[in-house]
Design brief:
Layout lengths: L1 H4 L3 H24 L8 H29 L4 H24 L3
Helix pairs in contact: 2-3, 3-4
Length: 100
């Protein structure tokens, strides 16, 4: 998003998060995990969103630290943050939502 419309990199990451949380939830419940620990889909989505909010805060912190403090190129910072946050989100969702 940042490269296409000139958004600030932190705002761009936040907007991407909103779209990503919705898509990730749908993929998780339909294709990835076949056992769900919570039967109420509203509570399940709330937990997914909470994990996502923690993830976005970590994501923004990592991007800020690498870009502003360590002077890495933004795209390298974003790539590093993406890998770390993917692992965090997947692991937290698997532990909290998709295991009995």
């Amino acid at each position: 998003m940042k490269e296409w419309d000139g958004l600030n990199y932190l705002l761009s990451a936040t907007l991407a998060f909103i779209l990503g949380i919705i898509i990730n939830y749908q993929l998780s419940i339909h294709w990835i995990f076949d056992q769900r620990a919570i039967s109420n889909s509203y509570i399940e989505f709330l937990i997914v969103t909470l994990i996502g909010v923690i993830g976005i805060l970590l994501n923004l912190g990592i991007i800020f630290l690498l870009t502003e403090q360590l002077h890495m190129v933004y795209l390298h910072s974003k790539l590093a943050a993406t890998v770390i946050i993917f692992l965090f989100n997947f692991g937290a969702r698997k532990i909290c939502l998709f295991t009995n």
